[in-house]
Amino acid sequence: MKTKKSLSKFGIFAALPLSIFFIVLAVPFGQGLFLTFTDWDGFGYEKFIGVGNYAKSFQDPEFWVTLTFTLKFVLVSLVAVNAVAFGLALLVTAKLKSKNIFRTFFFVPNLIGGVVLGVIWQFIFNTALVSISSKFGWSIFQSSWLNETDTAFWALIIVTVWQSSGYMMIIYITGLISIEQDVIEAARVDGASALRTLLAIKIPLMAQAFTISLFLTLRGGFMAYDVNVALTGGGPYRTTELISMHIFQDAFAYGNFGTGQSKAVIMFAMVAIAALVQVTVSKRMEVQS
Amino acid sequence: MKTSKLAGGSAIARKSIFATGLVLSTAYFLPFVLVFINALKPKMDILANPLAWPKSVSWDNFEQAMQKMDFFRSLTNSIIITVISVSALIIFSSMLAYYLARTKTKFTKTVFLILVASMIVPFQALMIPFMSIFAQFVSLNNRAALVFFYIGFGVALSTFLYHGFISKIPTEIDEAAAMDGANDLVLFWKIMFPMLRPVTATVAIVNALWIWNDFLLPRLVLTQETQTLPLSTYLFYGQYSTEYGQAMAGLLLAVLPIIIFYLILQKQFISGISTGAVK
User: Fold this and answer.
1) Which of A38, A100, A105, A179 to mutate to test the interface with B (most CBs of B within 10 A)?
2) Which of A22, A188, A225, B158 could disulfide-link to B93, CB 3.0 to 4.6 Å?
């Protein structure tokens, strides 16, 4: 009687969403892993080739270019986005009348998809800045930043910061306003400076906000695709392809399904390890404080 | 008292904070201004000076862009796909979360753990097998396929959000309703679901933002007639990027709907994001 009832409950509440979840996520994930060990060409496979696809992926020099570029991007964007976002959060939690308007301005870029942002900034870097700098004789923007790998990297960082700092700002605001005013007041009475209150009281008490925001930026950095495609398109000469775009190109533009999927599995492993390490370290710091 | 003391003591500090805020928010908003003023100008004026205010206002670029990027068709597609996916996600994940939170067995705990763990899997790791498995399905009806995929990808996070909230609702409420003879479905929709309103708002906003702006999945799945707004913007820009004025008008059209939506629901957006992230 009881099992029958719980079974019908499962059928009503859980069966459909869970089956969709398994069809859409688990099946491709399992199959994707399985296919990397075969000679799959996008349509079918004939035999197992062990780790051949992985070996081939690591022998691909372009993949190494992508890997280094991606890691650099993840690190720099992680630091830059969070530093800016935390600064903005401090700014809009100060006692200002105009803080809500500021908050809206900082947040709006986040509403817009990476593709549209990417092309807006493509126009800025390729056309607007070049024309302004030739008018005023500036040398810094004379040729488009998107033409050189190094400057294109910073262009990607600028756009990423512009796009995601508003979102992370909201998370930091939530953290900041969750701190009880009594604690801050007590510190002030004890004569702690604003900076010391920030470092010794506020930041430790809102450690959870850092855990979340760092996790989201880390994951976002590895998965960045839209801005990459729309801003640099991977150019010049495939030197600014982040891993996500590299996988897309490898599989769908060059037809290398075997190595493409192996690289995707490598990407998954990197994201999982990086996220695990980050969350473990952050959680430990939360407990200590 | 405290504030007045603080304000009196640090008027300069407050002014400098305000000035910093003003400079930064101008910097954040400048790209949009740039797009807007150039959308009103003919091509020659843009090349001459992209920073200059338009000499005369002309909406030609908007008309051209609207027509070339098939604005209303992509807008309709985006709306249909987002509304159906988000509604389905709300219904499915609230029910699933209710089941998982109220039926405590080894099985439900495992399922919940799998859902949470799955959130770390990047779409790129599934993309390639995904296309080979679903190619047939996609070619039949690609909008329905897209909605189906969004449900599959979104169900984990949404269920997680609902689960956290439902766990805090005392079970006495369910028990009392069950005593009155309400069956499971009635109980859920009449009593439980109305209590979940704050999370429903979060789930709706987080998913709507993601689905509305998604580019990669529509790019893989959709054909020309069923393009969503980000996709048609990207293709339009690729084709007409040298027609700067039209390209700018197209970009502005693409961002307008979501900004309007945000301005109407600003409060819900902000609280939605903070609760969605902190859970």
Assistant:
1) A105
2) B158
